[in-house]
Amino acid sequence: MSSPVNIECFVDPSFGENAYVVWAKDKGACWIIDPGLPPSATQIVRFVKDRSLTPAALVLTHGHADHIAGVPEILQSYDSLPVYMAREAQPALTNAGENLSSGMGFDMRIAAKSLHDLPAGGQLELDNTTWHLLDTSGHAPGSRSLYCATAGLVIVGDALFHSSIGRTDFHHSDHDTLINNIKDRLFVLPDETKVYSGHGPVTTIGREKRHNPFVRA
């Protein structure tokens, strides 16, 4: 059975960060998720134009620099595009200490004219698909995962990886919170649910429940 959702991944060579373009209809609306360091944003804009897609939102799973670095370039091409980011994560856009860019040797501060919350427990609609907003904080404040039941997939940012989890040694991280959120928000999803992470390959909920050494069910 084919999925009602299409996903294209763009990997930046600096941090291996996965940015995504998500769409449900040919030549329809799309989301741009977590555009990273160059050439991620350039590749995304070219792909969106080549596919005749119309960006409806720029969605940020959390506020770390490798996941927001491409936002200015995306907004240069689509200046009225709304940016969706959890309220708790939004200070990272303008605070280099919170987005961790100061520790990477540069000072990243991003202005977004149209900024919207991603409330935990809320929903977003993309054409004929519904996405549930899951609180998967712990790696970073206000981290969100986007779960589409009809497509059988969840986009998790840096909460959960193939055989790993997000780092929790940053000043605003909390290991216990991350582990509890993975168990309570992600591991309750069907085992066959595909997991699209912020780094690394696609995995499944079932595989990580059985084999992830950091958080086995």
Model description:
The structure is a single chain. By secondary structure, this protein is of the alpha/beta class. It has a single domain (6-211), classed as Ribonuclease Z/Hydroxyacylglutathione hydrolase-like (Metallo-beta-lactamase, Chain A). The chain is 19% helix and 27% strand. The chain contains 5 helices and 14 strands. It has a 6-stranded mixed β-sheet, covered by helices on one side. Strands 7-8-9-10-13-14 form a 6-stranded mixed β-sheet. Strand 11 and strand 12 form a beta hairpin. Helix 1 runs parallel beside helix 3. The mean pLDDT is 96.
Task: Describe this protein with a few key phrases.
Metallo-beta-lactamase, Chain A; globular; six-stranded mixed beta sheet; single chain; 217 residues; 5 helices; 14 strands; alpha/beta
Let me know the average pLDDT.
96
Described by the principal axes of the CA atoms, the overall outline is: globular
The quaternary structure here is single chain
Count of helical segments? 5
Q: Strand order within the widest sheet?
A: 1-2-3-4-5-6
* Biggest beta sheet summary: 6 strands, mixed
| CATH T-level topology | Metallo-beta-lactamase, Chain A
- In terms of DSSP E residues, the strand content is 25-35%
Order of helices and strands: EEEHEHHEEEEEEEEHEEH
CATH hierarchy, class: Alpha Beta
Poorly predicted ranges (pLDDT <50, ≥5 residues)?
Answer: none
Computed Rg: 16 Å
* Helix content bin: 10-25%
* Number of E strands: 14
Question: Architecture, CATH level 2?
Answer: 4-Layer Sandwich
Number of domains: 1
How far apart the termini lie comes to 28 Å
CATH-assigned homologous superfamily? Ribonuclease Z/Hydroxyacylglutathione hydrolase-like
Output the structural class.
alpha/beta
